Amino acid sequence: KYKDECSAINSLLVEERKFFQFKIKGKEKEINKLMAELEEIRNKVKASETDRDYAEEKKLNMLEKKRVDSPITAVREFGLNREEELVSRILMLNERIKAQDDTIVKLQDDNIILRNKNQDVIDDLRNAVDEDSNQKIMLLRHELEDQKEVHKQLKAYVGEVLRNIMLTNPQMLERK
Known about the structure:
Layout: H1 2-69, H2 71-168
């Protein structure tokens, strides 16, 4: 009976360990999914920046074409327009650099948060498994102590019964 109970408890421990391992794998999949989403966002940011670069290049090409198409107008307006164009381009590039820096900082923060969440989940699952295992070990120890006590009492009782039989009716114990 004791072996059956120990076997049952061991089976239960194995099942619970498998369950927690399954939960850990699920959390790892969730983390991988979040990392993939983060990578997708990064790719979208890069694509957006590429589109913006293309639009800026197209605008510059149109301005260049306009200047080439009308050389006389270009010569007259070249000084002021070129200066305005360069100042505008510098401001636009500065804004673009600032936006990229902000995006990088946000992505780094998101990455740190994801790493911390991942570590917290792993720690929680490990602690849950350890605590649960320790509780089961304590339960098994208590049950073992209880069974030892019952065994001791049963042994004393059987000894007392045999003594009584030997005193009152010893022929019952003789082999035939």
